[in-house]
Write a structure and sequence with these properties.
It is built from twelve helices and 14 strands. It is an alpha/beta fold. The strands form two sheets. It has an eight-stranded mixed sheet, with helices on both faces. Helix 2 (27-42) crosses helix 8 and helix 5 (218-230) crosses helix 6. The protein is globular, with a radius of gyration of 22 Å. InterPro entries: AB_hydrolase_1, AB_hydrolase_fold.
Length: 389
């Protein structure tokens, strides 16, 4: 939809005042570019393309084409034939940069057929619900929300307990992202609930069908917390990866159930969306003024139709470095200094601002949300120790 004359006028005046760069002749193209970038950020990716070439397979190894992901140490997975198949990969066995090939351990084919051809990298390592991936009894339950029922997995501890953990995946991710956190929490005597939230596959869409960067999704996590409380939970542990971290932080800020929260675990979290979006604008060659205007449009009620959102997305409300004094819950914050998607800077700054609350565990080598993949024992030990405090 083309911007209205009034929208263009407001954007041109506002941008010229705050950034000093929009001219009258460039207003329409600048607003259109900024609105396009904003929509890209807020629109769920319904389909993920194959991104990994399987070159050869034998009983114990898989040879892949070299990408930024396929050469990183650790445990990962591959989706095969869309999502009809899945296999698990271990560490690098051989790296042949001259031929563009990397050979990794083959740890198992979970389902489907692994053959040469195209596949899709799975950073979660696991590719099925907890009963199939972890061998743990799993209840498939529904959490009632304002938008309708949301599917969730419930993995109970071995002994009855009133401690529950709620695990929140990131933007464009699947619930399988959270499976890496189930074992150490369950081993610590905690029931684990892995809910969906709006715009997930198999879950209801939000009013606009777009991500709100945690500013609306938190309500679904509040409903998951209510489900846990209604089932007998007296203590809650909130765990979030990437945008899931931003959702958890909004839940802590806005939910009437935060008094039940005892521990917060954040893995590669979005502490400040403004920082993340500025980073991606630079990575994609978006001029800084256009990136700045896109974030401005997200938060303006009059620009909702331009951006395609039901409610304004005020990025300033997601800056927890600036809002550090408002935090009240102790946190374990895990983040790699080599994270290419959500820069580590705001996590470091938050830890410096609130050393009384935040225990910061910096990682190296791991790409975004892959800290467990590179050092699973260290990750699980840190989680066990934290929830025991």
């Amino acid at each position: 939809m083309a911007p209205s004359r009034e929208a263009v006028r407001r954007a041109a005046v506002g941008a010229a005042t705050t950034a000093g760069w929009v001219t009258a002749l460039g207003a329409v193209s600048s607003v259109s570019a900024a609105a396009y970038f904003a929509r890209r950020v807020l629109t769920p990716d319904r389909e993920r393309p194959d991104d990994t070439e399987v070159l050869a397979v034998d009983d114990h190894t898989v040879t892949l084409g070299i990408t930024a992901d396929t050469v990183v140490p650790g445990r990962y997975g591959l989706w095969l034939d869309g999502t009809d198949g899945h296999c698990r990969l271990g560490d690098v066995v051989e790296l042949d940069e001259e031929r563009g090939r990397v050979t990794r351990e083959l740890l198992g084919v979970d389902f489907g057929h692994l053959t040469p051809g195209l596949a899709r990298w799975n950073q979660y390592y696991y590719g099925s619900p907890p009963d199939r991936s972890l061998g743990l009894p799993t209840q498939h339950v529904e959490v009632l929300t304002e938008l309708g029922p949301m599917p969730a997995w419930l993995v109970e501890a071995e002994q009855p307990t009133d401690r529950w953990a709620i695990l929140v995946h990131g933007r464009g991710a699947r619930r399988e992202e959270c499976l890496r956190g189930i074992t150490p929490l369950r081993d610590s005597g905690i029931n684990v609930l892995v809910p969906s939230y709006r715009n997930d596959p198999g879950a209801p869409s939000g009013p606009d069908g777009r991500y709100n960067l945690g500013l609306s999704e938190w309500r679904d996590i509040e409903d998951a917390a209510l489900y846990a409380v209604q089932q007998g939970a007296r203590e809650l542990v909130l765990v979030g990866w990437s945008m899931g971290g931003a959702i958890v932080l909004q839940t802590l800020d806005r939910s009437w159930l935060t008094g039940h929260v005892s521990h917060v675990i954040l893995d590669a979290p979005v502490i400040d969306w403004n920082d993340v979006l500025a980073h991606h604008a630079r990575e994609h060659g978006v001029p800084a003024p256009v990136g700045t205007l896109s974030r401005t449009l997200m938060g303006r009620r009059w620009a909702r139709r331009l951006v395609g959102v039901h409610d304004p997305v005020d990025v300033a409300k997601t800056n927890w470095v600036a809002r550090a004094d408002e935090l009240r819950h102790r946190m374990l914050l895990i983040h790699s200094v080599d994270d290419e998607f959500v820069p580590v800077g705001p996590s470091e700054q938050l830890a410096e601002a609130r050393p009384d609350l935040v225990r910061f565990e910096p990682w190296v080598t791991a790409r975004h949300t892959k800290e467990w993949n590179t050092e699973p024992e260290r990750w699980e030990t840190a989680v066990r120790e934290f929830v025991s405090l």
